[in-house]
Fold:
Amino acid sequence: MSMLIGVLKERKSQENRVGMVPSGVKTLTDLGAEVWVESQAGVGSGIRDQEYEQAGAQLTAEREAIYAKADLIIKVKEPLKDELPLYRSGQTLYTYLHLAADKELTVELAKQGVTAIAYETIQLEDGSLPLLQPMSEVAGRMAVQLAATHLQHNQGGKGLLLGGVPGVRRGRVTILGAGIVGMNAAKIAIGLGAEVTILDINPAKLAYLDDIYGNRITTLVSNPGYVERAVTRADLVVGAVLIPGAKSPKLVSRQMLQAIEDGSVLIDVSVDQGGCFATTKPTTYDNPIYTVDGVIHYCVANIPGTVSRTSTLALTNVTMPYAVQMATQGITNAIKANSALQLGVNTYQGAYTCKAVADAHHLDYKPISSLI
Structure:
């Protein structure tokens, strides 16, 4: 019996990405899978229903029908609370989940017997996160672009141009984390002419950045003293800390905010994993900022969602190979055969199978290898 795959329209605020493009539908249907796509699922990424139909998809306006029939549901973001009751035991959900920051969602997915495969915890042997990388590249580049706008006085900022002009100091940008987000944020900040400092616990990453940018960037091994000094003198702080699957450490305390100039901007790209600022709370594009102690916080949890055409194409380039493997081999066999995919399984038949997520919520962890 062929696998039925469902592609849903995202309902998170200003989330315009979609989990599959027409070329992906054609690939899967040519392999014998049946693909159902919710009407208007791709409109935010410039993809018309007609394109999905021409690729071989069945279109439906009844999303409940997709939940009822699909063996595998492919999305971009985690389910909203009112969507959770629609999932059923034995169904597989393949999407970004960020469960370490959401115990309620974690417990509910396990309770319902959903096999929850998180894009962000699929990990290769070299430690890289192939399904997180393209969105991290987008989010890192956008972070500086967005924050630079909020430094303008008419946006509530201190009225500072990051690149400065002759005779006036450049803006100071501090980036916490030298992973994919941090490196891409640094690239844009340097391009704008800012004075950039980047901190990380991995000296090899800092050496790599130093080789590329030389004296155009300051690299520091992260410790509490260096973090405090770099943060409190910055006009813009980018939170780009990631521990795969786990909650982000809180590197910027409430006390540090007292020493930051009013109108400075903190943008927390790690908000999906709980954020690395003590004062982080998730926001949406509808109301992206809030102010604490005079410091602007930008904590949108789906930054790439508003550059949806670029993001959808970049994301589906890397998610499709795993979808093809699951469609052709079956879910369990694909998980058995692929060690990277095994690390993506966060819940399975009621068990918590991602150690970082289980530890974050003090739940019992069971290795997926013991269940399949």
